[in-house]
Fold these 2 entries.
Entry 1:
Amino acid sequence: MVTAATATPTTAIRLENVSKSFFASATPILAPLSLNVEAGEFVAILGPSGCGKSTLLRLLSGLATSSTGEIAVDGHPPGQGDDLAYVFQDATLLPWLNVAANVETLLRLRHVPADERARRRDAALALVRLSDRAGAYPRQLSGGQRMRVSLARALATEPRVLLLDEPFGALDEMTRDRLGEELLAIRERQRWTALFVTHSVAEAVFLASRVLVLAARPGRVAHDLRIDLPYPRNHDTRRDPAYLRLVAEVSARLRAVDPEAAAA
Amino acid sequence: MVTAATATPTTAIRLENVSKSFFASATPILAPLSLNVEAGEFVAILGPSGCGKSTLLRLLSGLATSSTGEIAVDGHPPGQGDDLAYVFQDATLLPWLNVAANVETLLRLRHVPADERARRRDAALALVRLSDRAGAYPRQLSGGQRMRVSLARALATEPRVLLLDEPFGALDEMTRDRLGEELLAIRERQRWTALFVTHSVAEAVFLASRVLVLAARPGRVAHDLRIDLPYPRNHDTRRDPAYLRLVAEVSARLRAVDPEAAAA
Amino acid sequence: GKKSAESAAGSSKASSTKITVQLDWFPEPEHGGLFQAQAKGWFREAGLEVTLVPGGPNALVNQRVGTGQAQIGQGESVTTLLDTHKGLPLLQVAAVFQNDPSVFLLHAENPVRDFKDLNGRKIMARPGWVFLDYLRQKYAIDFTIIPFNFSVSNFIADKDFIQQGFYIAEPYFITQGGAPAPRYLYAWDAGYDSYGVLIANSEWAKNNPAALRAFLAAYVRGWDDYLHGDPAPAHAAMKAANDKNTDGFLEFSRRMIIEEKLVVGRDAADSARIGRLDPARYARQIQIIEDLKLAPAGALKVEAVMSTDYLPSAK
Amino acid sequence: MNSRALRWLLPLVLAAVLLAGWQVLHHSLPPTRRFLLPSLPQLAEAFRVHGAALLVAARYTALAALGGFALAAVVAAFFSLLLASSGLVRATLYPYLMGLQMVPVIIIAPILILWVGPGAPSVILVTFLITFFPLVVNTTQGLLSVDRAHVDLFRMGRAARWQELLLLRAPAALPYFFTGLRIAAILAPIGALTADYLVGSSSGGRSGLGITALLFSARNEIPALYATALVGCLLGFALVAAVSGLSWLVLNRWHDSYSPSDK
Amino acid sequence: MNSRALRWLLPLVLAAVLLAGWQVLHHSLPPTRRFLLPSLPQLAEAFRVHGAALLVAARYTALAALGGFALAAVVAAFFSLLLASSGLVRATLYPYLMGLQMVPVIIIAPILILWVGPGAPSVILVTFLITFFPLVVNTTQGLLSVDRAHVDLFRMGRAARWQELLLLRAPAALPYFFTGLRIAAILAPIGALTADYLVGSSSGGRSGLGITALLFSARNEIPALYATALVGCLLGFALVAAVSGLSWLVLNRWHDSYSPSDK
Ligand SMILES: Nc1ncnc2c1ncn2[C@@H]1O[C@H](COP(=O)(O)OP(=O)(O)OP(=O)(O)O)[C@@H](O)[C@H]1O
Ligand SMILES: Nc1ncnc2c1ncn2[C@@H]1O[C@H](COP(=O)(O)OP(=O)(O)OP(=O)(O)O)[C@@H](O)[C@H]1O
Ligand SMILES: [Mg+2]
Ligand SMILES: [Mg+2]
């Protein structure tokens, strides 16, 4: 199951001098920003509210265009590659489809055959523990359940690049921890490159091979930290002193970044 | 500034044998549940995703009706009292109003005079650090910014009972901590009774005078814990060993509840 | 024009000649000659297969005849002259009524006694009726026109109401509606003596003179029989084609046609020659059109717009 | 319980009040004008006398209305998708579609009669012209009003244009489409009646409600005229009821306009 | 840049193609039928000859259209709010409003002439009747389609019925209202023309477009008839453009139908 991509790491995401402003005149939301993410990396992004995390993911997915600079995702300009999945900050389920059909939406767009679609849908729903709610409509779900459906929808596509915008934000710590571990297990199989926005330092350190700490006004990478904990990570990792030390360190870095954000 | 309510604690919220099912036949979402909250209490609610936390708040606000049982909020049946504010799990800002007008919405409903409205709006916006975005429309805000506007909208009403459904869910830890402290400071002045749903045990223990741990299927109070840390709490509280012990204890209780949720 | 006229005629050469007649209104006694001839089988006897197509507010008789969708139609002469001027290949071949029965209806006590008195009044009429322009010019008057809606309700309900009407039809419904019989202002009293006419597609007429002659002969015989014989066959056919026709109405309308000498003409000398057309009257009608500047002088020639060649010759 | 009973009672009470008011109005008119507002017994009598004829005419008009309505629904759905597919198409085509609606039926009636011929085809065409546009405007607006976040989802999923149109915009536009359909359902029978009046044919002694109305009107049979109008209304109500039922079936499970006010 | 140029070019190209097609069609018709589709020079000639008269008629009809349209907008807004205020009101009133729309204008023409009088008041009233209903249906649907979560917000804030209606449902329904307004804008001029045809009045040689059309039609002046229809269309376009502009002004800052496709 080990693909060539892991054997010879290549660049999955590359940003060069990318900036973004909403109005030509205004201060940019993202300052000119350069970044390289190798294939298979799991990058967690931390940063104060409104610093530009979602904007960064939107640029990578091609949903927004950068004001300046160059972006390549999986070797393509943003929005052109075929194997990207993006879990939005909001669940954005289609209200007229039930949970099962919502999970299948993206597969349908890719013309995945019906039986394969059903298989992946069931697996994804089982993963987020919502198999028994497959027939429910979005308005019958709790906030956390909706986010889990959204996550299942993205994972079912088995992408090469995965962008996640606070997918666990609305979940309790247990569910969060469990889903984090499941995510890492899936990563072993699917081997995507991930950019994962979160507000939990512990989560960032537990999941990621690399943590970016963004600063606000304009958004920029204040710290770029490698997390050298071996995979697979599991329950024990959370008690590993190296892990705890890294959490403390990243927390400190984030805190140091904050005063600038507080001015916002 | 100390009102009678604090001098002689009275019951702010009372539930007696309250249950809720969406279909007459189905297993209830909330099992018959009884609960008393004294005026001035700050109750944090923890529990797995989908266990019924939002449903409980909806029952208290009168937005949903219970299938069985009696509810009294601030001496009134739910939905009849005048001084309740509810921060929903989603921001639910009105897209056609800018930030300032959104914050004023609830005040307008109560016929608060224009100058008083402007005063409270500005104070609330300053609190959530969005004064400089007062003129922006919701679609120009980040996810966290939207939640902060929603919080400001509720706080501006200076209610007697405050229901908060994961108001800090989409926020980074710094902002979260700061807003938590601000919330406690406001509480000193406004003296509301609060029910606060959160997924962060640390946050629950830091803010609350009492923590309810809910279990799922059907939703019920598994643990009802008093947090005997003195107010005012602040930065130092977070390093207080008593605080850390309580966090660990609540975490353990929550974890013990989880296996049942995992079955969901 | 030629092509469509030919195909209309040519398609039926095999057995009998097919002729479609476009009526100007729903079947009523004003179509008595046609229905009687049809009911008695006189068209068939003459080797013609005739279809009578009911009209209505949008009968478009001249357009349908001009484009060959019908070979013959029933209409009014001055309007037809105008349409001929506009280029439709129309030929007026027989009179239906020696005087077009369109008149103004008034209540008995209405102070309007004369056309001059119409000045400043409100009249419900077809805005395109040339007679209106004629009145304005001749008497130097003006009035307000309300579009004709084929109803007599306003007339019955309003003592001051003045409206256009076929006086062989509307008065019946007015009296049935409980109002006293109306008074009339006849167009011909103002010097506007248009015909009710049969109009043929001129190309078709040129190519099928025998058929047209045979048609008109049967038609004239039909009128004669309808007026002087038993109208029952025609009335039965009219009721079949329009179930709102009551015996009372059919009888009233026929009686009016007879009493007012509409078909035979008030000119007793010629009364046996049903269908006759007078070129001199056409010259006057063309003069009216020219005076109203609806066509330039000399544009319309009597010989080109009408013909008596197809009528049965005088006995 | 109480409020549910009211829901049945109040409309009935209002109906009774209106009918009584009608009757009173009839009798309060000066006798010469009374015929303009026939009394209820006169109306009943008109139904008794002309009921059979009205039924035949109603069937004819109902078929034309349904034909025009169905045609409009299908063609409007197609054009709305086309219009929503790109701003360029919209800028190019919309004015002509609007033009189509703005051609006064009374003006093209003669042209239709001469080209299509009087009778059912023309009536269906006119009904189509009358009902088509509200459908196009509503459906197009619905297709354009789709939630921005959902469009982003589909763009992210690299949906083809047609997938975005059919799998996202089309279902999202359903509430708008049904609104248009409801308007069209109301317009169709009266449109067919008007069309029958303008371009119908009474050949063979069979005609629709329009020509029937015209004849009753010309003959001053006012009660029968009202009866004819009433039959037209009933057709409209039947069609609206059908559309509302369909709308409920399709939308009730997810659309907010059907979400119960409290649960 | 390129696509923006296309946006101007394509409609113009289509217009040119259609005009050329028209001209070709004209010449390919058999001569006896050619009069049904006047050639462009004939049309131009009709405008030259009758331009002044058409302008007068257009002004008259435009005023009536605007009057009926404005009346419909105001009354529809009022009734929609009433209908949306409670299911009971809706169940009670909606059928009668529908009935109002379904009364065939051609049938009530005599009654209007008698009671309202021919001319401007009747024309405005008929225009109102024609444009009213699409507005009511759309606006009511909009008022009912408001986001459930926002209703919850207002209920939580203990909003009075009228506050929920005016501060929440009314602004949320604006996109639907403007959709209805766009339909009404298209219907108003042609409705006024039709109304003029049915219940207008002409005196001193001055009349609206309907009677003008009737006159041209009776005189078989087909090019002038087309010119009249065209003038009616132009009025419609002007009104639609005005409504679209207003809609943009009101909605562009927040509604998804105006959100740029990429930012
Ligand atoms: N309209 C509905 N019909 C049926 N089931 C519903 C409906 N609304 C909510 N539920 C179910 O009720 C349960 C409780 O929902 P609730 O929103 O209260 O959960 P919660 O504790 O707030 O969860 P979360 O932390 O994910 O927000 C969930 O399992 C949900 O699926
Ligand atoms: N359409 C827009 N017009 C103007 N400003 C915008 C627009 N969209 C976003 N912004 C601003 O850009 C900044 C970055 O937004 P972004 O959504 O990327 O933040 P974020 O880091 O994801 O925040 P959060 O953690 O709260 O989700 C915010 O200050 C936001 O207000
Ligand atoms: Mg964000
Ligand atoms: Mg919840």
Entry 2:
Amino acid sequence: MTGKASGPLLSVAALLGLWVVAAALTADPQILPSPLALWQPFVRELSTGTLPHHLGATLVRVAWAFVLAMLLGTAIGLAMGRSERVNRLLDPWLVIFLNLPALVLIVLCYLWIGLTEAAAITAVTLNKVPNVATVIREGARALDRDLDAMAKVYRMSATTRFLHVTLPQLAPFLAASARSGIAVIWKIVLVVEFLGRSSGVGFQIHMYFQLFDVAMVLVYALSFIGVMLAVEWAILQPWERRARRWRTA
Amino acid sequence: MTGKASGPLLSVAALLGLWVVAAALTADPQILPSPLALWQPFVRELSTGTLPHHLGATLVRVAWAFVLAMLLGTAIGLAMGRSERVNRLLDPWLVIFLNLPALVLIVLCYLWIGLTEAAAITAVTLNKVPNVATVIREGARALDRDLDAMAKVYRMSATTRFLHVTLPQLAPFLAASARSGIAVIWKIVLVVEFLGRSSGVGFQIHMYFQLFDVAMVLVYALSFIGVMLAVEWAILQPWERRARRWRTA
Amino acid sequence: QDLPVIRAAVLQIGTVNWELTAIRENGFDTEHGFDLEVQGYADNAATRIAVEGGEADMAVADWIWVARQRAAGKDYVFIPYSKAVGALLVPEDSEAEDLTDMAGGKIGIAGGPLDKSWLILRAYAQQEYGMDLKAETEQVFGAPPLIFKSGLSGDYAGSINFWHFLAKMKAGGMRELVSVETAASELGLDPDTPLLGYYMKEDFIEAHPGIAQSFYNASRDVKDMLADDDGAWEAVRPQMNAKTDAQFEQLKADWLAGAPARGPVDAEAAGRLLALMAELGGEELVGEATTVPEGLFADVQ
Amino acid sequence: MGDPAAVGTAGEALADGMIRVDILSKRYGRVPVLGPVHFRIAPGETVALLGPSGIGKSTILRILAGIDTDFEGCVSRPEHMAIVFQEPTLLPWRSALRNLTLANAGLSEAAAREALARVGLKGRGEAFPGQLSLGQQRRLALARAFAGRPELLIMDEPFVSLDAKTAETMIALTETLIAETRPATLFVTHARAEAERLADRILELRGEPATLSPHLVQTEGYD
Amino acid sequence: MGDPAAVGTAGEALADGMIRVDILSKRYGRVPVLGPVHFRIAPGETVALLGPSGIGKSTILRILAGIDTDFEGCVSRPEHMAIVFQEPTLLPWRSALRNLTLANAGLSEAAAREALARVGLKGRGEAFPGQLSLGQQRRLALARAFAGRPELLIMDEPFVSLDAKTAETMIALTETLIAETRPATLFVTHARAEAERLADRILELRGEPATLSPHLVQTEGYD
Ligand SMILES: Nc1ncnc2c1ncn2[C@@H]1O[C@H](COP(=O)(O)OP(=O)(O)OP(=O)(O)O)[C@@H](O)[C@H]1O
Ligand SMILES: Nc1ncnc2c1ncn2[C@@H]1O[C@H](COP(=O)(O)OP(=O)(O)OP(=O)(O)O)[C@@H](O)[C@H]1O
Ligand SMILES: [Mg+2]
Ligand SMILES: [Mg+2]
């Protein structure tokens, strides 16, 4: 166990080392402060409660948008992947919404719904749904037809079919879109926050960027990344290991 | 053929119809102009050559970043998916780079490399590589071991194995990451352009957005989407149909 | 008694916030019969969406932008705030003496090709030296902080930025080659025309008669207080993000220098500026506002 | 034309419990694989289907099971079926035990373990299909089909990949099942001995497109 | 301990062309599946491997082929092998023809068509594996193994899922191939008749963990 756990820690350490070297070479703390220089501002932001406040706001938005986008995107992707007719109808919409700039969607949502939390989450969700749908559609197209036939003949219920026949086949696609999904969502949340919210990591990052305070930008960015690493190690990877057990057994 | 082709056209028409209705309901051309109101500015931008100039600049950036990100991302994803050791080493890097805000990477690239084309393309590529790698890694993990064994026993060359054993299995994952990839790249290119380039669709969109000129923002956004629809219909979908022929035969 | 509330959407770190905070902290708002609520945003665009979306009653913009919106049908009204404008700065060791020395070099510009300072400088170069500044230099447009940073590192022959970044660049040793104020006077424009101001929707003003004047009074009170009393700046200082005393002094001086004279905007002088802008920036900049739209400037005394 | 086993048809035909297969023709693309194929299976009857490799046996089974609906003709069958495909077709991500209980909704875990033991997989309930030998997977597929007490049992070469002794056990098991629950059974085999032992009747496919070779079609009597 | 067929070992052992299998033990997880299994195959010799389902036959073939290297013992084998897996294991996204030419680098298209014809798949060269019946897929897998003229031929139940006539053709084809190119051959079967007809020698696996049943191990003579 310890041998396995040391891998990630080592590689995080290596990354930190690289950063220290890069910072030393850059020799301009305004452009790239060394990791050590971030500790004090980090502790300060933490103790004043500013960082938890903004991080919390962002996490709530990310969580909402993630759940909504995964549900909607999976449903749409499955429908498109399984039925050529649905696909032909929705495909152009998918391409259009996929390539609609985040800015446009965000501004329209804010103007229609108002500068509210709901508008922010809607904007992010709308931005992300086509991404999820695209990935899941490919997964749905690759579903095994023999297993489908088996499920049909044995009259499995819709739930059983979904949980035990479809879902395990979609697992790699779900994992891929969940992981790259959270990343994209969080990037859009950043934009959403600086365009119309008064809280959140994106708001802080943009503000400190305007002030050209790279250290603070990094403090906020890395706090979120820290949370994501925790989610990855505590939730996603154990789940994936479980879901993948049959492959390696 | 005509019956099949009419599906997408119909659905684009439906989307246009929806837009007309929404515009009529909004009744404020500054918030949501009707599609008709875009025609004149579009023609004007086209004839002065402004739109082709900026669209061209953006497309070049998107193309470069796309090719680089797909190549690098596929290589990294494959390596991580096939070797648990490589995965353990690189996984934290992947999570970190996946969740590093685009803004941070872009600003750092601009500051280090300068406000140049190379910096812009590097920034976009770095933003996108972890996304591709995440998706391809899942694909690599799902590779069929029996086919691998077969390829080994029959001493297939590395190229043959890659082209005829690995690639077809990765195809859904490649299609997913290519499609959602272009979309993400173009969204990041927009940010890159408004932060530090003097040309490109993103530059124009941001400028018109500052002027609150939604019509022009839409003209530029939709021009790019038009190009993407063309790419989708002329290149991606025919290729996909070919690659998927064995499934439906 | 319920006072009318003005919800102001401003850049969290904007210089306008210094004034608004001072208004609230010194109770100038209630004194003049309204309650001020400040919403901080991270980007200018956000403040505009807030007003348009009805989440705020007031934001900050230059009046040319407001004129454009008004001409396009929005009922925005402008209340003057500052006449601070930009300048073109050159690196400390630059040997440039006037704009002609920029020829063949790079100019870093925050705010894009329609930036007003850039346009005025172009007109000035044309009139003064017969020089096409746009054709004879290479322009690098970038986000203000990036222009600030690369300008300081000496990447450009000249830099044009927003005034508070300029103040920091000056504090960092850069030298002012030509100020937009000078250029504007040379072009026959009135340098006292305040470019920057608050804007509100007309129906908001109608719903609360006299609110524009009340707000303007409060704004003037703060300006007078800060001009007279150095000590009052200490309360503002934490917001100013000045890293050094030099930066603090420069920001303070530039802010005070930007305070316009009390009174309404001279519509005629504004008309001349707008005409020049329309000529230089074209429809892209001014939209349908080729002349100052009726009722653009609030009649504040 | 093709009325592929509409529920109405099925209900009607099943008044007498008779399974009717009336295929007029079946093509893949433009290649006709099956010509007219008509037969009946009475409840409790066991029918073997013989024919050379590639003639269309699996195609007929798929049509009967309702998996393939793209043919000309019509088919009536009971609701409650079980099938043994030519390949095991298990859920590789679920344990042997779950493969049984998921496919047979009412099956208790104890009954599933019992079913595993009967096909010689005692104690392997927690194994994933990938951890079983191919012969073990095939036996698991048999157990899955037998566990549900179906009205119609369809089997595609159920006893290959098994050594003589195991095959004998499986055949005996099949006989027991058929004797106990009396499903209508249609199975494909290449071993005539197997067919003669288990089946009441043998159908043989011949020709191109394939039809039932005339001298063996004894179904007219049921019409 | 486990020195799984290092190239050095392989080269050395092959000085005399002899194929040596010396398995000490093989476990899956903690379950031992194979005990000591030692045998030799001389060039040109054909050996059949028999044993009940699930005993470990496929496991031995996989170890011999170098697919499974996670065992204790050592194995030496020639470079140039061909294998027929228990399941067809074709590339579903490549045509039948490409499946032959991709696995056999030197094979011309004409030769591949010829090979298809010999296993009764004439004219089906453009079909994807999914468009073939299982028996046809198995024959394609046989054609793939035969086309390369290997030094070592490994076959896992090559003739199941085929009707008697087709099976006979395939067995005859195998005999021809063995006579022509004289590969060392190891094959698994459940049909003793098949084993006796093709093989020079029969090995039988028994027990748990499985070992070669003593009276049939005639390999000592080769040592
Ligand atoms: N990955 C695995 N994990 C655990 N046990 C396994 C695994 N693979 C195979 N086994 C077990 O090893 C034993 C031997 O398997 P093998 O496939 O070699 O059998 P076999 O002799 O080829 O049987 P058959 O004739 O049914 O194909 C079986 O009992 C099987 O359940
Ligand atoms: N999807 C398809 N497209 C084209 N031809 C097909 C397709 N599926 C099957 N065939 C052809 O139809 C014929 C009948 O196939 P089927 O699987 O029913 O044969 P079978 O009698 O079960 O043979 P086997 O004993 O080998 O399993 C074969 O010649 C096969 O090549
Ligand atoms: Mg068949
Ligand atoms: Mg086996």
